[in-house]
């Protein structure tokens, strides 16, 4: 035994508490969300429905925390896609995602509430 242990895989921070702030990075949700938008994410509450904007982790990439649109439930998880078809890596690339929470509001730079209606 050499005493060397490979480093554990780095996992993204999980949502803590019922409401968590999340910052959008990248263009995958343009035009709905933009790089730098600050979001309020709710863990729990009502069940996720197709069309909801969610924070998720791909099963094939547990180190990658993403903001995407829930499309349909599959294999005990969700098929998720970005709104920007030209600039997104989503379930088409990484497969099924596990949803950690649902986006309920954007509080910076332009406050906007994401209600039960489609956005």
What do these coordinates show?
It comes from Micromonospora cathayae. It is found in: Membrane. This is S24/S26 family peptidase. InterPro entries: LexA/Signal_pep-like_sf (IPR036286), Mito_IMP1_subunit (IPR052064), Peptidase_S24_S26A/B/C (IPR015927). The chain has one helix at residues 91-94; strands at residues 19-23, 38-42, 53-58, 61-74, 77-81, 97-108, 112-113. It is mainly β. The chain has one domain (19-113): Umud Fragment, subunit A, CATH 2.10.109. The N and C termini lie far apart (57 Å).
Offer a quick outline of the entry.
The chain is mainly β and 119 residues long. It is built from 1 helix and 7 strands; from the N terminus they run βββββαββ. It has a single domain, classed as Ribbon (Umud Fragment, subunit A).
Itemize the secondary structure elements and their pairings.
Layout: E1 19-23, E2 38-42, E3 53-58, E4 61-74, E5 77-81, H1 91-94, E6 97-108, E7 112-113
- On the 0 to 100 scale, the average pLDDT is 86
Write the element-wise H/E pattern from the N-terminal end onward.
EEEEEHEE
- Please report the number of helical segments: 1
Helical fraction equals under 10%
Uncertain spans, ≥5 residues at pLDDT below 50? none
